[in-house]
Amino acid sequence: MLTEKTEQSGVTAAPGTTKARIERAALSLFCARGVDAVTTREIAAASGVSEGALYRHYPSKDALSQAMFFAIHKRLAEEVEAAAAEAAKIEDKARAIVAAYVRIADEDWTLFSYHLLTTHRFLPYADKSESPKSGNPVAIVEGVIMDAVKHGELPQGDAALKTAAALGVVLQTALHKIYGRVKGALGAHEEALARAVIAVLKS
Amino acid sequence: MLTEKTEQSGVTAAPGTTKARIERAALSLFCARGVDAVTTREIAAASGVSEGALYRHYPSKDALSQAMFFAIHKRLAEEVEAAAAEAAKIEDKARAIVAAYVRIADEDWTLFSYHLLTTHRFLPYADKSESPKSGNPVAIVEGVIMDAVKHGELPQGDAALKTAAALGVVLQTALHKIYGRVKGALGAHEEALARAVIAVLKS
DNA sequence: GTGCTGGGTGTGAGCGTTCACTCACGTATA
DNA sequence: TATACGTGAGTGAACGCTCACACCCAGCAC
């Protein structure tokens, strides 16, 4: 709750612009009721603009929903990659990656929730245009874990499984925050999450 | 892949009935493209019946999607509760609960995927009709963990957090199986999942 | 047996509504 | 004057759902 996004700060657009207000309104509605259930009329009304204005900035509702998803998807990938690069030992990499996730989530919780809740909708569209690894936070995490296993830092075992389990610790906690089961900012639990992730990796 | 559900076995209905075929067809389509994106015409076509027949068995598309969600939701709650009851120590409870999840998932993977992918859509409808704990697998797991913390079997710490992290290990792995990142039946990873869950709980 | 009845089940053209999207038009800034 | 931005009534298409009709078959009287 420390750094809450105002209604003006955009996802793709500069803060204060009409495009930013459209993105913010769409984001909230998409999170609350799902992309398909939200109408363009509602987005327009919630943005305080007309429906036509919406189509000045995005060619379609689908393009709007996709652009916002891949904005955070790409951001996550970049920050996870940077976090992994800034540490040497796997424990420190894990801590840095958890810190990156938590920071991005708390910085723009609605956008992060949107990513979490719609991943299965947009992932099929992802690897078509880009190389399978770059731009995908999961693939980057998996690469880090594979390396650590290869170098004997982590016990042998299916890296894909370790990746899923480690990410699950953080992402399910975020989900439970959406459901109201976990309270407060994710950042308040960063230390516990990091310890849990490391425990999973070493198990 | 051992015990794959045939197209005839129902979710709510007896195998081989029209209702069961409708449910199976709807389930596959809902998983593949999302509830809202699937039309009643498509469900009817995929079931091999007319659209009208669909409304002989369910009053609405929404009722169909809800009934199937709560069928597995209730089943998960019951089996998790039973699993927790059959063991004394928290490690054994954890193993039994993981085993229950894995078994239910592999028994009807499409239905389990559906539950996983649509939880955030239907959960708001859940606690209105029932008591908040019974019938909710997450609440039951949280109860088990709270007890274990209280009795000194697990280190002190936020039980809600431990619950999310432990469930995340299993559920994110299931998600990654949907994404094609984890291969084979969940059962093949049961031992690794159980160890990871226990490691998280003790962290 | 035959004939009648009634409930359960399946059909598909059709209904009213709502949706994503368009476009002719206004306005502001350079 | 030209370009960008904003407007909102309007459009065709597609949606969830209905309904008049047909069929099947068990139960029962004769």
From TrEMBL, chains A, B:
Keywords from the named record: DNA-binding, Transcription, Transcription regulation
InterPro entries: Homeodomain-like_sf, HTH-type_TetR-like_transc_reg, HTH_TetR
Protein's UniProt keywords contain NADP: no
GO molecular-function terms, A-Z: DNA-binding transcription factor activity; transcription cis-regulatory region binding
UniProt DNA-binding residue ranges: 39-58
Residue ranges of domain HTH tetR-type in the record: 16-76
Name of the molecule in the record: TetR/AcrR family transcriptional regulator
Organism of derivation: Hyphococcus luteus
